[in-house]
Amino acid sequence: MCYSGIPIEYLQSRKYKDRIDVNKVIYVGNLIKRKYPLEVLKSFHTLGDRNFHLSYIGLGREEIFIKKYAKKNNLTENVHFLGRMNRLEVQTYLRQNGIFVMISRDETFGLVYLEAMAAGCITIASKDEGFDGIIRDGINGFLCKSGDFEELALIVDKIKRMRESELLAISKAAMDTAYSLSEPQVAENYIKMIEKYTL
Q1: Better pLDDT: 187 or 115
Q2: Cα–Cα distance measured from residue 37 to residue 81, given in angstroms and rounded to the nearest whole number
Q3: pTM for this one?
């Protein structure tokens, strides 16, 4: 088996979302500088948005700075730290949220993006960081320059202004993309590619 796709157990019950809560936002990853977890919070503050619930899953030094920023700007009630979790626990939380954000740099492929898409989240990933070929901006997710909280704020604002039908279409397209990239399907694709160029 080639472990570069979505685990098949995440895909057993293919149920599309019937609503997207754009005020529930989640970040999953190490809380380290190159992943820009603080910039996610800054983007909402830039919008002047107080109606959001931002959950962080992961551990790292940046938690200190996120907490300081939240306290300074009276956003403590909007931010929640859930610590480290296993992948199946993460899936449960992803399904409960409307938007997934991680605009990190120096990424390779980023399976967590696929996991968020499989859960039907409106997924915002980094531009030019290995995931551009999977996310088609505005179709099955959105792309943002790494670490650019001002661009992220514009994307979040755009998402919040979209009609429910548009959001549901993006969520469905995200799930369909993830389903096409299950571990068995990716392994099969690799085998076909190898056979094509070696036989």
Answers
A1: 115
A2: 12
A3: 0.87
